[in-house]
């Protein structure tokens, strides 16, 4: 399929309708836009086509962060070899990025939404006023979503809210400030939310509606967009932390007031509630899962693509959790086990001696989310056999470390999150990733709240409900089975604990890739280590080792590059260099 470039994405007045119902054609064989919006099925088909440009969040992205090292790095020409050792250029970025160069795709989605929003007010298709209002609301939230995904990757982008047609003077085109893009996102979501609950719903009722935009999605988009807008990378002075706080607190309150809550059910096939959540389907119409707000991807196959070498039918170990991630998990008593490193190589950890951490037994008594997310040496292989098989990641063990084999761990750890131990090549019981869930709304509010005030300031989030930044983080920790963060932390100390909490709570969910960029702390991805374990009789020895420094941690990697051909076109048309900093 031809990939349309930026001008095609913005200018193109032609369209493709993703609908099974054929349209009535004029005598010349063409369908006009007016024809599309006369027919109910065609209108619904066009709206369906507006959804075609969404993207899920693949687990592969974790290998581009300090969460993991991907075993595929040993393959010549693999994307991870470029990200780790070679580096990226404008010309190869689309080939080796986890989601290619999505500039054109998202602008295609925006154009389709613009056409729909512009034509619906005069549509004569058979539909109630409520139906039409609901359809427009969906298109507005979709447009907001596409713009959110664009500015997270590219920063400043063109702001296009109408169908420009073929006669627009593109020499006047400009890249908008991120603050103005976020204002459009908030405005689109607010316009959708001004629609009645009957027209634009909170909950879906039919399987055919899976993936449809809802009121909760609109609030989640607002929450994330406002938070990103005031983060160091994107803050251009348009929004303040107080304004971001107002957006994030309202999003949290509205969802809590409409029967959203953190998952707290322990299933027999998982070690704790946190683990159970990621094995449950987000597509149950909120009958059981009241935490999930939006998901796109289907069921994962962790057992095959990110599995243990002893899995029947495994293809590769994929993303192997890093020692840095392991060190980030606190002890079960809420104390930090590792508070830093004495050396630049991360081979000499600073151990919090009062935490109870034992370097000779490093996996004991950790945060329950550790046991939900990581297969480590000594982890139970099958939860229905509590005295049975244990994972052996030591040298020579059944799942032992082997940095020259794609099916074995390269770090000393395997991914457990999303994996059901019952899965095999005969039956897949693995779980699902989400784009938005209630836990993120808690955390977004917490970040805005401590930056706008202090960690312990009580904020009225709606009605009589009050919450501080610390309260919001503690809600997440309580669900995980962790003690509260202490009161009285300085803003700097709270920020460190908050960022670590976010790292742990959202591990392998795709959040970290963008979080460290918006915080402008990308250099922490440079040094990555693993754990080499040897067993000699009853003596187990743990030795940290370091991978080569990653080369893709300079400031230019904070944003995606724009494709060279498109930069050249816009330079010719506008006289301006649209390329992002550092990309030549």
What would you say this structure looks like, in words?
- The protein has helices at residues 6-11, 33-36, 40-50, 79-86, 93-96, 103-119, 129-154, 178-193, 215-229, 241-256, 273-279, 302-305, 323-328, 368-373, 438-452, 469-480, 491-505, 511-518, 564-574, and strands at residues 68-70, 292-294, 319-321, 338-341, 349-351, 374-375, 414-415, 436-437, 459-462, 465-467, 529-536, 539-546.
- The chain has 584 residues and is mainly α.
- The chain has a domain at 201-298 and 432-518: Serine Threonine Protein Phosphatase 5, Tetratricopeptide repeat (Alpha Horseshoe).
- Helix 15 packs antiparallel against helix 16.
- The longest helix is centred in the first third of the chain and has 26 residues, at 129-154.
- The two termini are 28 Å apart.
């Amino acid at each position: 399929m031809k990939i349309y470039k930026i001008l095609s994405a913005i200018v193109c007045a032609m369209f493709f309708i993703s609908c099974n119902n054929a349209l009535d054609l004029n005598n010349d064989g063409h369908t006009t836009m007016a024809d599309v919006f006369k027919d109910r099925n065609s209108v619904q088909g066009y709206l369906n086509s507006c959804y075609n440009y969404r993207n899920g969040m693949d687990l592969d992205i974790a290998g581009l962060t300090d969460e993991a090292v991907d075993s595929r790095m040993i393959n010549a020409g693999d994307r991870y070899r470029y990200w780790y050792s070679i580096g990226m250029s404008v010309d190869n970025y689309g080939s080796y990025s986890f989601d290619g160069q999505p500039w054109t795709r998202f602008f295609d989605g925006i154009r389709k939404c613009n056409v729909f929003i512009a034509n619906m007010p005069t549509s004569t298709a058979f539909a109630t006023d409520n139906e039409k209002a609901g359809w427009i609301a969906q298109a507005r939230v979709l447009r907001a979503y596409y713009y959110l995904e664009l500015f997270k990757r590219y920063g400043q982008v063109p702001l296009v809210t109408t169908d420009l047609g073929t006669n627009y003077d593109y020499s006047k085109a400009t890249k908008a400030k991120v603050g103005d893009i976020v204002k459009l996102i908030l405005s689109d979501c607010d316009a959708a939310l001004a629609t009645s609950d009957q027209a634009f719903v909170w909950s879906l009722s039919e399987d055919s509606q899976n993936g449809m935009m809802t009121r909760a999605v609109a609030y989640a988009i607002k929450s994330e967009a406002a938070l990103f807008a005031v983060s160091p990378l994107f803050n251009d002075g348009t929004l303040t932390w107080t304004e971001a706080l107002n957006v994030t607190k309202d999003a949290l309150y509205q969802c809590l007031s409409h029967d959203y809550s953190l998952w707290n059910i322990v299933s027999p096939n998982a070690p704790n509630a946190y683990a159970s959540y990621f094995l449950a389907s987000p597509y149950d119409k909120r009958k059981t899962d009241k935490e999930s707000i939006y998901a796109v991807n289907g069921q994962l196959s962790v057992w095959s693509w990110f599995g243990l070498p002893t899995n029947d039918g495994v293809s590769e170990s994929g993303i192997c959790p890093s020692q840095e991630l392991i060190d980030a998990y606190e002890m079960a008593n809420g104390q930090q086990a590792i508070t830093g490193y004495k050396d630049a190589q991360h081979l000499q950890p600073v151990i919090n001696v009062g935490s109870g951490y034992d370097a000779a037994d490093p996996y004991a008594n950790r945060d329950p989310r550790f046991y939900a997310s990581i297969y480590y040496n000594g982890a139970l292989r099958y939860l229905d056999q509590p005295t049975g098989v244990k994972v052996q990641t030591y040298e020579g063990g059944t799942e032992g470390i082997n940095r020259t084999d794609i099916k074995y761990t390269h770090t000393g750890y395997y991914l457990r999150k999303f994996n059901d131990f019952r899965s095999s090549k005969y039956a897949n019981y693995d779980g699902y990733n989400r784009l938005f869930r209630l836990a993120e709304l808690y955390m977004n509010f917490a970040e805005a709240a401590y930056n706008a005030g202090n960690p312990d300031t009580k904020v009225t989030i709606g009605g009589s409900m009050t919450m501080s930044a610390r309260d919001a983080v503690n809600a997440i920790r309580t669900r995980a089975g962790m003690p509260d963060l202490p009161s009285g932390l300085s803003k700097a100390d709270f920020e460190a604990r908050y960022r670590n909490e976010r790292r742990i709570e959202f591990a392998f969910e795709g959040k970290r890739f963008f979080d460290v960029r918006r915080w402008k702390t990308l250099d922490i991805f440079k040094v990555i280590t693993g754990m080499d374990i040897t067993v000699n009789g009853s003596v187990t020895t743990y030795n940290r080792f370091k991978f080569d420094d990653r080369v893709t941690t300079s400031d230019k990697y904070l944003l995606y590059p724009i494709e060279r051909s498109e930069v050249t076109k816009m330079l010719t048309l506008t006289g301006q260099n649209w390329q992002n900093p550092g990309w030549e």
